[in-house]
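Same chain as my last thread, 151 residues:
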Amino acid sequence: MSMMKRGNALLCVVACLAASGAWADQIVMKNGDRVTGSIVKKDGKNLIVKSDQFGVVTMAWDQVESVTAAKAVNVVLADGKTVQGTLSTANGKVEVATKDARLSLAPADVAAIRDDAEQKDYERLEHPVGVNCGTATAVSASPARAAMPRR
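reply #2:
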């Protein structure tokens, strides 16, 4: 293999490796530890990240120095409003870039962060099927079963 072909092959490998990390969320802790993966959620005092190398990692939100989320996440603000956008941190603030605006928030003003799957699960719990005015209604599997006498 010629030197030029080897150089091109090496450049291609480096570019692929760099691109694979470019789409991952990155979290830097106050002690300098770094976690790369996908933000799953931040509820309460913990941030949960799914890492290819380490599986699900839970970390204390108050120990997070910086966050960068390349993919849009759902951010619940302290007032209950939910916005969707990418995350980054700057000067001790959490920056949320939505399609319409850029918000700069104190970390304490971020009530929750959820990826799309977690947001769908949350919404399902908030508005469950078969619940009316706080009382659950049973959904029968078949009409014949509904006609069976109860013991």
